[in-house]
Design goal:
single chain; mainly alpha; MetI-like fold; 16 helices
Length: about 325
């Protein structure tokens, strides 16, 4: 019995040989550090310094003696380090101590104005998000005559600068007798926000309608569908608008300045003007003003520390700059 040996296939060197990568020409090495990257880092560093330096200067001034600031205004470090400015802001310092460190001697009820800011920002944020959500649902899901025309009018409101609406709103608030009230500060902005309505409507249009239609077939009403189905699915954009709306209301200055002249309703941003006063022998209390500004910004800094990632995502989500 003879066995037939089959010839083993010859593996050619051409098949096993992996193609060689093209070599970089001599004299040109691939470097991770390029001129473009250096320019980019330089630009980022400049923007970072320009952004952070005002906060550092605020801290430096707040921890300085107000009289000593005049002697050495260009110092990068606190001049005659002292906590006196914060003591004046918190009402701990006496009038004699305040005048001795260059303060005006005027006192400020920081907790009272802080409470006013919390009430103003919270109610306005809740109201504007609530009414915007209802309006957005009406534009996105309900079928009614003139809906598209009305939405076009809403979009046109986005093109109107906010400064143009201040005077008509002021006249309306005055005629309604709402000056020096929280209602006068909150209502003109809380009842209508074209951007919020547009933003939420566009998001609701992207939601699936099958779930809502199934709920309607089972007998649920529109209000129940809105609060039990649509709102949970829109929680992300609602939280986004809530955070941005609260920050905007907290930092609002010009509108409360127009409609309030009584300290009982004035927010903290207006109360800071107390520290711009000065005694006849002294310059304005810049140290006290910076300390009060830091105290006013502290809630926003805490908000950023807690919700920093969501705030950054919110800015990117809404396309705000």
């Amino acid at each position: 019995m003879t066995t037939i040996l089959k010839p083993t296939p010859r593996v050619t060197t051409e098949v096993l040989t992996t193609p060689e990568r093209p070599k970089a020409p001599r004299g040109r090495t691939i470097s991770r550090f390029s001129a473009g990257r250096a320019v980019a880092w330089l630009y980022i560093a400049i923007v970072l310094v320009v952004t952070v330096f005002p906060f550092y200067w605020m801290l430096r001034t707040a921890f300085s003696n107000n009289y000593s600031l005049i002697r050495d205004p260009g110092s990068l470090l606190p001049v005659d380090f002292t906590w006196g400015a914060f003591a004046r802001v918190l009402g701990i310092a006496s009038q004699e101590q305040s005048l001795a460190e260059g303060g005006s001697g005027a006192s400020i009820e920081i907790l009272h104005f802080l409470l006013n800011s919390v009430i103003y920002a919270t109610i306005q944020t809740v109201a504007i998000v609530f009414f915007s959500t209802i309006a957005a649902y009406a534009f996105a899901r309900l079928r009614w005559r003139g809906r598209d025309l009305m939405f076009s009018v809403f979009l046109a409101a986005l093109m109107v600068p906010g400064i143009l609406t201040l005077l008509p709103n002021f006249v309306l608030v005055k005629d309604l007798g709402l000056l020096n009230t929280f209602a006068g500060m909150i209502l003109p902005t809380a009842l209508f926000s074209a951007f919020n309505i547009f933003f939420l409507r566009q998001f609701m249009l992207g939601l699936s309608e099958e779930i809502e239609e199934a709920a309607l077939i089972d007998g649920a009403g529109r209000i129940r569908v809105l609060f039990r189905i649509t709102l949970p699915m829109t929680s992300g954009p609602i939280i986004t608008l809530s955070i941005l709306g609260f920050i905007t209301a907290w930092n609002d200055y010009f509108w409360p300045l127009l409609v309030t002249s009584d300290d009982s309703v004035r927010p903290l941003t207006l109360a800071l003007a107390v520290f711009k006063q000065s005694s006849p022998q002294a310059s304005p209390d810049w140290a006290g003003l910076m300390a009060a500004t830091l105290v006013a910004a502290l809630p926003m800094l805490l908000l950023f520390l807690v919700f920093g990632k969501r705030i950054v995502n919110s800015i990117g989500f809404t396309g705000l700059k």
